[in-house]
Amino acid sequence: MFPPVNLASIQNSESLVYLVTGATGAIGKVIARQLAANPNAEVVLVCRNSAKAEQTATDIVAATGNPKVRFELADLSRLKEIQNLAERWTGPLHALINNAACAPLARQETPEGIEMQFATNVLSYFWLIEAFSDILKASAPARIVNVASYWAGGLNLNDLEFSRRRYDNDSAYRQSKQANRMLTAAFSEKLQPFGISVNACHPGDVNSKLSNDLGFGGHETPDQGAETPVWLATHPIGMETTGRYYERKHEVDCGYIRDRQAADTLYRTCLDYNGR
Ligand SMILES: NC(=O)c1ccc[n+]([C@@H]2O[C@H](COP(=O)([O-])OP(=O)(O)OC[C@H]3O[C@@H](n4cnc5c(N)ncnc54)[C@H](OP(=O)(O)O)[C@@H]3O)[C@@H](O)[C@H]2O)c1
Fewer CB near the last or first residue (10 Å), C or N of the chain? Predict the structure, then answer.
């Protein structure tokens, strides 16, 4: 299902290579900038809009002096685009930061007929981990950071796409952020034997298109919002622990992570979307 990887190209890289999704957004841009502040970092921004991507990369290079910042284009709501991204990737990947998300006010579907929040906020995390897992394994030790939210709940395994329930963007969003934590649990068990950690976090309440679409502003700065995801991507603790959920750099007990049976059911349900 996922493309073969040229493992021969992954050899003793001197750089730490990071992939950040949603890097044109409020929090993602600062995650990328904070990572790029390390001169040994190579940061790949995965974006869907080339003009925004170019401007973001230019801004980060100017702010950090690190020339190793580039972008790749992909609409993350679409499996094929993620598969193509993994297929054209060369070299290692040491940390995948799943951060892109949306919260459209009215129910929308992708061209493949998948509800947009489920596709972007949940399946893109799942598809990226699957598509890059061989590359991450060959680059290990490696990490996955799933940017989730404290605002999570209401997931219905029998109606993940709001086909039977009335759609409202807040309910679909809360469900998707619960799913981020559940998939963190499912993937942490599968990837731990390969030296890959998988953790989830709440970033911070930051003013953004997403938060505005959900009806709030956000009282934290983008730098504060980026702090915990970047810490998980760079601090030893993000490698020493796996399958955990963090807020403000502290682990928070999470029932969605503890419920491995539901997590596994969601994982298998996501697998069923690979044919779409
Ligand atoms: N803001 C908060 O207060 C808050 C609180 C808790 C959790 N979070 C989480 O933090 C993360 C970042 O949120 P944010 O507030 O920074 O949101 P944002 O500013 O609205 O940014 C969202 C990013 O996702 C990208 N994106 C959306 N759909 C995409 C698609 N189909 N393909 C590729 N990229 C796509 C957007 O690209 P475009 O620029 O092209 O639209 C943008 O770069 C999300 O996971 C969110 O759930 C945020």
Answer: N
Which atom number of ligand 1 is nearest to the Cα of residue 119?
Answer: 31
Give the distance (Å) from ligand 1 centre to CA of residue 161.
Answer: 19
203 lines ligand 1 (CB under 6 A): yes
Domain ranges of the chain: 13-275
Report the distance separating Cα 4 and Cα 83, nearest Å.
10
The mean per-residue pLDDT over the stretch 72-82 comes to 98
Single pTM value for the model: 0.96
pLDDT of residue 20: 99
As a whole number, mean pLDDT of residues 36-55 equals: 98
> Sign (positive/negative) of CA torsion 178, 123, 74, 70?
positive
What is the mean predicted confidence (pLDDT) over 69-79?
98
254 Cα–ligand 1 center, Å: 23
Q: Ligand 1 mean position to 171 CA, how many Å?
A: 17
CATH fold group of domain 13-275? Rossmann fold (3.40.50)
Is-catalytic flag, 256? Answer: no
Does ligand 1 come within 6 angstroms of the Cβ of 128?
Answer: no
Task: Fill in the amino acid letter for 216.
Answer: F
- The CB of 53 under 6 Å from ligand 1? The reply is no
